[in-house]
Amino acid sequence: MSQLGMNLPGSSRTARPRMNIYTGLLFLAVAALSAAVALVWMAGMRVAPEEGPMGAFKVQDAQRITLPG
Question: What are the residues whose beta carbons fall under 8 Å from the beta carbon of 57, sequence distance 6 or more?
Fold first, then answer.
């Protein structure tokens, strides 16, 4: 029957997954969140009390806050 172009219900179809609008929006959201994390990380390194990339996790003393520059 498949030679005539007729598909029976329950027959195995090989449907290839396609990229749709939701997949594109997911990639766009991941890119936007990654850019936001990078910007916040760089801003945190500027006001951190210690130098280096891990200095953004350190907390300044509440009585003695200093900004570089």
Answer: 48
How far is residue 2 from each of residues 8, 15, 16, 69, measured CA to CA in Å? 8, 16, 19, 75
Q: What is the pTM for the complete model shown?
A: 0.57
The Cα 19–Cα 1 span in angstroms is: 31
Query: Tens-of-pLDDT digits for all 69 residues of the chain?
Result: 556 666 666 656 666 778 899 999 999 999 999 999 999 888 888 777 777 767 767 776 767 767 666
Residue 57 in tokens: 């996790």
Which token pair is 50? 């210690």
Q: From residue 39, how far is each of 3, 19, 35, 36, 53 by CA, in Å?
A: 59, 29, 6, 5, 13
